[in-house]
Amino acid sequence: MTDGVIDTQIMDSPATAGTVSDYVALLKPRVMSLVVFSGFAGMVVAPGSLHPVLTLVAVLCIALASGAAGAINMWYDRDIDALMDRTANRPIPQGRVPASEALAFGIILTIASVALMGLALNWVAAGLLALASAFYIFIYTMWLKRRTPQNIVIGGAAGAFPPMIGWAAVTGDVSLASIVLFALIFFWTPPHFWALAIFRRLDYQHAGVPMLPVVAGEAETKKQMLIYTLILLPLAVVPYFLGIGGLIYLIGSMILGLAFVGLAIQVLRSRDHKPARRMFTFSILYLFLLFAILIGEHLVA
After folding, report:
1. Taking a C-beta distance cutoff of 8 angstroms, is the pair 58, 50 a contact?
2. How far apart (Å, rounded) are the C-alpha atoms in residues 194 and 191?
3. 217 Cβ contact partners less than 8 Å away, ≥ 6 residues apart
4. What percent of the chain has a predicted confidence (pLDDT) above 90?
5. 2 — phi, psi (to 5°)?
6. What is the pLDDT of residues 216-270, one digit of tens each?
7. How big is the CA angle at 32 (ends 184 and 90), to the nearest 5 degrees?
8. Is the dihedral of CA 67, 69, 72, 74 positive or negative?
9. CB under 8 Å, gap of 24 or more: what pairs does 150-158 form?
10. Is the pLDDT confidence value at 8 over 80?
11. What is the distance between the alpha carbons of residues 225 and 181, in angstroms, rounded to a whole number?
12. Mean pLDDT to the nearest integer, 152-165
């Protein structure tokens, strides 16, 4: 390995037979868990209901499609993954899973999940699932990630689809409420990933990925993070006014939103990366709690 360059013979050399845990790792289970949770939230808050078996099928389809997109992402990014400390231990750079098998694994799971969603639920949900996968693979991974510091802003749409997919699985349509849930994740994504990019800036710089802290500097990135959290503050209360969130959600979203803004201000004023680490961790909790409150209100109603 040399500066920024990986010997393609090493990257594409035959790998040993991967274990079950290696193939699970290809699915990015930590990312998948939040995707599945937000998709389930969309199903719970949607008007109407699903048979428990169909609910499980829908959750499975969202999980498989998310994991499949992650596997294809790892196949495509295997060269830069090997250059970054955060990703160097992934199965493909370490030679535990052949790149071709990871690609085939991802393609098969993508087709299977979309087909199952369409046949078991409806084709609107299946279409959204296919669109989310295509957006993540082709728009974000293959086009935007290595070309523009707006990669996360535009590419973040892929991760915002799950609540819409869950909603459509129940209703067979797309509504203003599901679009608002989409927007919540869309505007949450930049400050979440930029917080990570601040304290992992050297990783991205070494791999040649034009994340905003690398291209525009940390000061500009911190300003942008604050702007997005300020947008989220009023946006997060909209579900209450649309009738899919109750009073507990209204209060909770305001408290969480103010805390998010407060952390963004700390990051803006800081000279080290500790506040950015705290903001990254809190951002996951923020989104989880928003959807958890929505789910809880509907399940106990």
Report:
1. yes
2. 5
3. none
4. 88
5. -120, 180
6. 999 999 999 999 999 999 999 999 999 999 999 999 999 999 999 999 999 999 9
7. 125
8. negative
9. 151/209, 151/210, 151/211, 152/189, 152/190, 152/193, 152/194, 152/197, 152/211, 152/212, 153/189, 153/190, 156/185, 156/186, 156/189, 156/190, 156/193, 157/182, 157/186, 158/69, 158/132, 158/133
10. no
11. 20
12. 93
Report which DSSP code applies to 197: H
What residue ranges do the domains of the chain occupy? Answer: 1-174, 176-301
- The H or E element containing residue 243 is none
Q: Which residue is it, tokens 């949770």?
A: 37
- Render pLDDT for 32-72 as a digit per residue (tens, 0 to 9): 999 999 999 999 999 998 999 999 999 999 999 999 999 99
Nearest to 221 by CA among 206, 210, 235: 210
Domain 1-174 carries which CATH code? 1.10.357.140
The encoded tokens of residue 23 equal 């193939």
